[in-house]
Amino acid sequence: MDGDWCSLEELGPLSQLTRLNISSLENVSSSSFAKKARIDEKVRLSYLRLECTSRIGHDGQLVKDEEGIPEKQQRGIEEVFNELHPPSGLETLGIRGYFGQRLPRWMVSTTVVALGCLRILTMDDLACCTELPNGLCQLPCLELLQIIHAPAIKRVGPEFLQPNHHWHNHSQVGASFPRLSRLDSIGLVELEEWEWQEQVKAMPILAQLKLEKCNLRRVPPSLAFHARALKKLFIYDVKHVCSLENFASVVHLDVFRDTDLERISNLTKLQKLVIVECPKMKVLEGLAALLRLNLEDYDMQTVPRYLQDVKPRLMLMDCSLPLLTSIAAGKHGPEWDKFSHIHQVKAYADDEGIPRKKYMLYTRDPFRFETNISFSAIARHGIAPSSDQWTVSSGVFSVHTTCRRQI
């Protein structure tokens, strides 16, 4: 023992452990030391975290001073992890900083069934892995899967979803990832393709999916077809996806900085939609259940025309001060026809470094329109709102400055 630290060999006799975090595994000189830890014999262990020092930088790639990890080091860490086989009763597993090319043998299809109690799996900073493990889809209890920062993965192939023949014939569920309710894929920065064959049943109770920071060209149509319990879908910084369609069960969709996204359609149960900095967005259709639309883009020069094709009860907009000034002209301004059909609109802009200092609040029925944008500021935009509208707006100014922060 050295303070609170011990060697892997000293872990061997500790048979009653329930939680274990092993870090700096890159310093283990031989897999024989890992074997002496006897991880697979610790039958009471429910939580295990295995860590190496991360080689991933802030951009999601190998750190700049890394010219590649030597093959000898990669083989060495693979051998160490192969000897850290978790016990069959493990419920939570975290792997961080692993830099082998191949994931441990106990994560592939022929042996992963031994982890039949695993509920939560997090894999973070997989610097050199080129494939996701092909056995995870067999785990009958897996509920949460997080894959974070895996810059060498360019494709998710069919092996990720298809169980091996033996398991498929004996499974009562008949679907891959039968209990998975949440999947997060974050920072697979080179990922371009996710293949999901139409006949492959998978993720029948998936409720939440996050795809963030990748080059995926499309979200597989089979996801919308088979993941019929999906309620929340978050697509952040996915550069090449052009459309999101036919997710019949989704009620909440966030799209952030998806620079090529043009169309969102046929999401018949969608109630909340958040669009942030999606400059090519052109089409919103088939969103009959939409209740709330949040729109944020400080580079917008005009209110998007696609708003005319949806009718949420509430729209919340964050935009530039010049655009807000144009909106604040109300029915006398150029933006009015794009949002006047919406029951309630709340639009904000930052001013003098103060977030949301300026605002416009509008209710269709009963009609109410107010703003703290000055008459002179609107007039400088070449727009002259009627004096009766402006008088009403000024009369209720103080009421809404105290209430609007509750939104």
UniProtKB/TrEMBL annotation:
Residues making up the signal peptide according to the UniProt record: none
Question: What residues does the R13L1/DRL21-like LRR repeat region domain cover?
Answer: 8-148
- Among the Pfam families in the record, one is LRR_R13L1-DRL21
Q: Which InterPro entries match?
A: LRR_dom_sf, LRR_R13L1-DRL21
Q: Which domain of life is it from?
A: Eukaryota
Which Gene3D superfamilies does UniProt cross-reference here? Ribonuclease Inhibitor
Its name, as the record gives it, is R13L1/DRL21-like LRR repeat region domain-containing protein
Instruction: Give the originating organism.
Output: Panicum hallii var. hallii
